[in-house]
Amino acid sequence: MEEQTLVTPINSRHRDRKALMAPFGGWDMPIQYEGIIAEHAWCRQKSALFDICHMGEFIFQGDFEAGGLEDVFTFSVATIPIGRSRYGFLLNQQGGIIDDLIIFRLAEDKVMIVVNAATADNDFAVISQRLRGGSFTNITDATGKLDIQGPLSRDVMVAAFGEQVSAIPYFKFITMNILGAEAIVSRTGYTGELGYEIFIPAGKVCELWDLLLEDERVKPAGLGARDVLRLEVGYSLYGSDIDEQTTPLEAGLGSFVNFDKAFIGREALLRQKEEGVQRRKVAFQVSSRRSPRHHYEILSGDRPVGTVTSGVFSPMLSCGIGIGLVTGDAYQVGSPVTIRHERVSMEATVCELPFFREGSVRS
């Protein structure tokens, strides 16, 4: 029997605006409204609003050490200050990435775990199995999430909700009253621009969406623009750049792994460090406006050395950009590579991340 596609509370709003809709992670999501390039530009220059209600949210309450939560992730939960968040991974025994996620420290004994949509059910099951105590609850259905991103997003948020928003530093959050409900407002995002993620009860999220779009500085943006924005600043996408067959060391994300603590997958990663990583993440810039695509082949000379995991046309660089996994020495900055798929061939050069460095994310 075919699995039913899920919808966010704002689904009818997207359809009213004639958004192009498509399945993503089991959800019916907006890909674009007026166009990916236009929505990308609006986010880089003004303020774009994204429906992210498909993401998963869990609450753990209890003793982090005794309950076993401290050993679940590649980072320490106990050392996250209250009011801050931290990014890292849930790994399998082989060191592969079950999911990448962010944990928000709500109180001395309470955190919110935010995970990817397609992996949410599996994440909840895996974490539950690893816990020894405490209360662990899936609040995804009860939680709405909007991301407002762009250099004008602080001005928009202050106009709507007051000056307290302006004082939130990067990767910190506050709890505040929005539309009569308790909401979490976090200075985080996925675009490389100044922005906020707003977690609010699902019953209020449509009202919040409408309120923010009353401001002429704000326009809705779909997942198409979001994908271009995140790749321009080198952020990984789960299911494309990282997955259960890819370790953080292969994905160039070892800085988010704390080897001084216990976690499942640690021994496998230590072995990989000792033996050497056989493949690794590489970023490349195409010498034309052509877009590399997922699964295109990466060649060094005539020799296949890897595969593209993400690729787009970058409006900010006016050329194709991409990242992939390669073997050998083809990942060295400045190395020429060829991107190929059937009759398509494009010349490219290995480069450093991020591709785009002028964003307002830390403004």
Strand tally, please? 20
At the fourth level of CATH, the homologous superfamily of the domain at 6-55 and 141-232 is Probable tRNA modification gtpase trme, domain 1
CATH top level assignment of the domain at 6-55 and 141-232: Alpha Beta
**Main beta sheet:** 6 strands, mixed
* Uncertain segments: none
Residue-averaged pLDDT: 97
Shape, principal axes of CA atoms: globular
CATH architecture of the domain at 6-55 and 141-232: 2-Layer Sandwich
Strand content: 35-45%
Q: What structural category characterises the helix and strand content?
A: alpha+beta
Instruction: Please tally the helical runs, counting DSSP H or I stretches of 4 or more residues.
Output: 7
The ordered H/E elements are: EHEEHEEEEEHEEHEEEHEHHEEEEEE
Strand order of the largest sheet: 11-12-13-10-4-14
Tell me the span between the first and last alpha carbons: 49 Å
CATH fold-level label of the domain at 6-55 and 141-232: Gyrase A, domain 2
Q: For the CA atoms, what is the radius of gyration?
A: 21 Å
Helix content: 10-25%
